[in-house]
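ok so i was messing around last nite and threw this chain in just to see what happens. nothing serious, just curious
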Amino acid sequence: MSSVVLLIEDNEQNRYLATFLLEKHGHRVVPAMDGPAGVELARTLAPDLILLDIQLPGMDGYAVARALRALPGQQGTPIVAVTSYAMVGDREKCLEAGCNGYIEKPINPDTFADEIARFLPPAAP
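result:
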């Protein structure tokens, strides 16, 4: 059974690469181009994992993470920040906003799917 991954990313090239890598590993990826669309999709989709860019237009990823955590039924959904923010304290800021993990951009195509897999529930036998 494939996992459903909600990918909140405004950059088309980043969306394409992440989607390609995740689909290659059997995941179903549902894209959202901005924060409000991602929050709305999370409300109706009930994804297994949310990948969240932090540098989004309008509503930044920190606000999106807080909004996602406030949704009924989304408190336990893993949220992983996938961001180019790589300064001292950025990881902690993501975790404080409600993210469970943090992956720096540019992503490594050889390890990305494995990095994501550790946030997903184990597959049923």
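not much to say yet. The helical segments are 12-24, 35-45, 61-70, 90-97, 112-117.
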